[in-house]
Amino acid sequence: MRMLLLIVLVVMSYVSDAAAQNSVGLSPGQSETIVGGLDVALNLEIDFIDPTVGGGVEIIYDATRLEFVSFTFTGDPDFGLTGPVDDDPNQPLEIGAGWFVLSPPFGVTGVHTIGTLLFRPIASGSAMVSTRESVINPGRFYPGGGGATPLAVVYSGATVNVGPPAVAVPTLDAYGRLIGCALLLLLVMRVLSQRDILGGSPRGMRE
Question: Does the global pTM surpass 0.90?
Answer without folding.
Answer: no
